[in-house]
Amino acid sequence: MRIFYFASLKENLKTSHDEMIFDSPVKISTIKNELVQKYGEQYFPKNILCAVNHEIASEDTLVNDIDEVAFFPPVTGG
Fold first, then answer.
1. CATH number for the 2-62 domain, one of 3.30.450.20, 3.10.20.30, 3.40.30.10, 3.10.580.10?
2. How far apart are CA 25 and CA 59, in angstroms?
3. pLDDT at residue 76 above 90?
């Protein structure tokens, strides 16, 4: 499964994506936990946003190997 990173998350991790292998299907929360172990919790806080196949997803969303998963920091504006 390919995991994509955007905005400051991409810059902080110094990569735009990762390849991960899971027994499908898995919840986003499982993927996030693996990423926290790899990179640290500071990069994947509770308010980080996730999309699956270009649609906002929750931590309970199930994904398969063919799905595209993306993480990006919350957007702020003024």
1. 3.10.20.30
2. 13
3. no
